[in-house]
Amino acid sequence: MTRAQDSFTFTVGKLDAGMAILLGDRAHLIEFPSILLPPGATTGSIVNIAVHQNVAQERKRDHEFWSLQEDILETFGSHSPENPQLEVRNVTQTSVTLEWPPIKLATAKLRSLDIYKNGQRLASIPNAHNNYSTKLSGLSVDTQYSFQLLLRTSAGTYPSNLIRVRTHTIADTSGISVCFANVTDSVLLENAKLALKEMRAKWSDKIQIDTTHFVCTTPAVTPSGAQPTGGVAAAPGAEYQRALQLSIPVVQPQWILACHSEKKMVPISGYYLGVTPPAIAGYSQRPQSMSQASLPSSSATHKSSSSRQSLPAIRRSTPPSAAPQRPIDEEEDEEERPPPKPPLSDMKHKSSGTMDRNFKFPPSQTQAQAVPPVPSLPTQAPAPKPEHEAGSNRTNEDDMTPVAVVVPSSVEVPPPPPVEKEIRKSLVESDDGDEEVGETVEIDLR
Q1: Under a CB-based contact definition with an 8 Å cutoff, are residues 203 and 237 in contact?
Q2: CA dist., res. 191 & res. 284, Å (int)
Q3: What is the SS3 assignment for 136?
Q4: Hey, which residues does 30 pair with through a beta bridge?
Q5: Torsion angles phi and psi, residue 76, rounded to 5
Q6: pLDDT, tens digit, for every residue of 209-255?
Q7: Do the beta carbons of residue 213 and residue 251 sit within 8 Å?
């Protein structure tokens, strides 16, 4: 086996722009960097070039390369995102509360986390890195639903397990989850907790995502819990304000006792805070606490107002000196006096040819003659009287004054006052007219 040649001889042919043209023994022509030539080499110089393989450096390079590949595989290829595990936390008649453990993305980036109901996308979970539960409301009573989470990442899509849930019926009270606040009656509070335990419901002292009702007898808090509202013991507590913000119904403990007594969900309209709750069968009616007495009761005010309206009006007698009495003649004059007439400037007329209502025709001679005369009555001779009676009658006739007889035809009767209906009718007709006329002109018809 022939040994490989250690070096090769070349003649420098030309030096140009940092490159040297080398010519070999067999007219081989190669381009060689001029910077690698020995110092002082010029055109026509003969140089020997030897080439050797560095095996140690090759092994070192290969080791570093494969170590880097293993690190990349261990970091990004061994662990992948995990599928979410969906669980049911609470079920009521119209809502379902779901929860899941924190999502594991490994080295992938989160795209979205969506909730699906009956195979259709319902909504996207906000703040999926820190939010591990959701409450779905507006469901139908006693209806089956299916729910599933879908995790989308930069490494792919990972669905969760499928859960099938049926909402409760009205008779199922196990879905009640209450938050107790300030209940002044300790016996009532213990009875409510025992009723929840028998109904397989749950309660807590803090509002959670599955809280269905906020139970208290007054919104006020104890001095230790009044710090969020400025340190005032009578001010509403932080949990009470949070319940109002989350639209959680605030009821009294009697509602829990009513549900336990009737073995079903009872409407909460009669057990709101501030309303006098109805009596519950099977439980003794305890006296109302001071906190409830301080709250305004709409039903009590309604009953008191209705009872007041049903009572007859109280008649109060005034002393004689307080009400001055007027003469009877003045009262009769006021009754007979006609209503005041409106001024002429306020009255509108449709035409200028109108007459004053106070105008009256003078009596004419023909009318005076038309009155038939009063017939004279036949006179009869008086019967003769005794002398002593005749003498007394004569003395009485001499003392009497003569009386003048008034003929009816000579008496002038004034016209009757205008009727109130005619005045109103004239006012209505004047208002209907669109034409405005000036002052009234009286026309003499004599």
Answers
A1: no
A2: 11
A3: strand
A4: 22
A5: -110, -15
A6: 999 999 999 887 654 444 444 445 557 888 999 999 999 999 999 99
A7: yes
